[in-house]
Amino acid sequence: MNRVDRARKVYAILNKDAADFDVVLLMGRMRPADRDTVISKWLGLLNASVSSGRELDRPVIFVSTQCLEVGANFDFDGMVTECASLDA
To answer: Fewest Cβ atoms nearer than 10 Å: which of 3, 5, 45, 57?
Structure first.
């Protein structure tokens, strides 16, 4: 997502109906303790270096701002992205 507020709203909508999947919010404007918890729980599972042997118990949807793209080495089965505005 391009905006923190929009990421929070999308996360809330998805998390409300998350019976068959997990929803994870990751953005730069998180408390460091919260961000460390997310990273230690989820990002190790989604690292591209372990993707060939990875099996998750259920699907995981990541809602993230651009903080995820810098130096990321992740393997996702699919991705939906928001186009940045022309001035960005």
So the answer is: 57
